[in-house]
Specification:
Elements: H1 3-12, H2 17-33, H3 39-50, H4 55-70, H5 76-88, H6 92-105, H7 110-162
Helix pairs in contact: 2-3, 3-4, 4-5, 5-6, 5-7, 6-7
Length: 163
Amino acid sequence: MTQLDDIIEDLDAPVDEQDIIEHERLYNEELQSKPVVSSRTQFGYAYVLVKSPYDNDIRKGIRLLEELCQSGVDQRDFVYYLAVGHYRLHDYTPAMKYCQRVLEMEPGNQQATQLLEIIKKKRKKDAMIGAAVLGGGAVALTGGLLVAGAVVAAGLAAFKGRR
């Protein structure tokens, strides 16, 4: 297994459901008891949501991270996990954009560089799979048209033979 395979495995590994429940509890407690949730609590909750096995949780985590970035605190971790969230949703264009943003903030950042490489490989693989599916569909359609044409030709020949 290569280092990138290890990273992919880590990116795709969901967090424990209990971690999500605990961070959600902390987030809601702060939301009810303070005028503003601390960036640390919001980031912790967003992180576990982005690592959730459920797409809706991932989307919610992305929204929380975007809020953190809009609050004027544009920390590398917030942006990196925005990239991770979009990667996990197979939304590769924004994931690449966020990786580039991390690299602008911190040139040479290994996490962002590796994630960018992984995304490029996934896009290429997904494109090849899509092309194969489309190619198979085109072959099936062409085969179907040939069969339909043969049936019509046979029908016309039979009709002419009756006359």
